[in-house]
Amino acid sequence: MTAPARVASGPAPDAPTDGARRPGVLAVALLLVVVTVGWRRGEYFTGSLDPVVLAKAGLSALALAGAFLLAASGPRLRLGTAWLWWLGVVLGCSVFGALASGDLAAGGTVAVRVAVLGATVHLLLRAAPGLQVVTALAVACGLVAAVAAVTGLPTLAEGRLAGGLPALSPNELSLLAGVVVLVLAWRTVLERAGWADALAGAAFLGVIWATGSRTGLLMLLVALAVMALYLRRPPVGLVVGGLLLGGLAVVGAATTGVVTAVVTRDGDGVGTLESRFIAWRAALDLPRSAWQEVFGGGMALKVIPIKGQWWDEQPLDSSWVSLLVQAGVLGLAVGLGWALWALRGAARTPRPVRVLFLGLLVFVVGRSTVESGMFDATPAFLLLAALSALAERGSADRLAAEAETLAPASPRSW
């Protein structure tokens, strides 16, 4: 009797495509989201160990161990590895930069943390169907966002909804809720959505609105527009519900002035954007050696000094400016290539998968312009890692097999 062979090009008959591993996948995904969201607002890792840092490290190790056990306990699915090279170069640049800046302890620690998260995502994708992993990450985002929003309701008195437990910033909460809305929109395009999906989508849209995240809302609308291009036969209930919701939104905005309040938040119109421009200009003017120009100053560098203003320092608030400062010109070029490569790969995936992948990537990459974290230990990085790994050529066979199971089904009840 011969031993069963490992899977070489797609799931074998006994591959975990029947949902047998779904609880384990969801548990690991939930751990990943929990350790990548902020537990304290306005604080950044500087190299010192405290209970929060140690707790996150322990949970990250637990997630890695869980993913390893899932991958080792059954047939492994074929998965491309090119995305790991992109990640490796970005992290390598940041480590060299941290070494040159004398901040290897903090910068190296953050780089190792991101590498652990990348390895966990990779093992999880080897153990379970890609769409199961992506949807598990979305469910985990929804669970964390729901708890944070409910426990953070008192923050509405300050003007913007923020997380209570965990203490998410409004923009972080908007990101998690946006992921859920896009997955529900994908189910609608596949004609698999029902009233429960519509109610959940409306609730998370309300969360996004309450956070006051302008970029999050704008990029969500752009991503939904991209996904709508693949909508062949809009369900009658969806059209009617959308028109009613749109009409109510227009009436409410016109009578309450809420749109004006969001656009002119902080009382000075584009003050928030202007402050970001100040930080970006300061980032370009940072005194650096030739080595630091190429390799940056390390992943722990998230706040830079500001001159000529009434404040002394400011977060970078842009994944791309952050990458330039943290990983240098080389890291920025590689990160840009990675994002474009992922979008190109997503555009070549089978239609049922392409709808979801393009929507999520447009959302995440679009937000990265004015929000940090796409190449750091954040939920945005988890999505970039999972989607780019599945969209590359080495994962094409398994993804095509998964797409075959996503033929539009009869809508449940609209």
UniProtKB/TrEMBL annotation:
Q: Does the keyword rRNA-binding apply?
A: no
Transmembrane segment boundaries: 20-39, 51-71, 83-100, 131-153, 173-190, 202-231, 238-263, 320-343, 355-375
Q: Molecular function terms in GO for this entry? A: ligase activity
Q: Which domain of life is it from?
A: Bacteria
Cell membrane is among the record's keywords: no
| The entry's keywords | Ligase, Membrane, Transmembrane, Transmembrane helix
Full protein name: O-antigen ligase
Q: Which organism is it from?
A: Geodermatophilus africanus
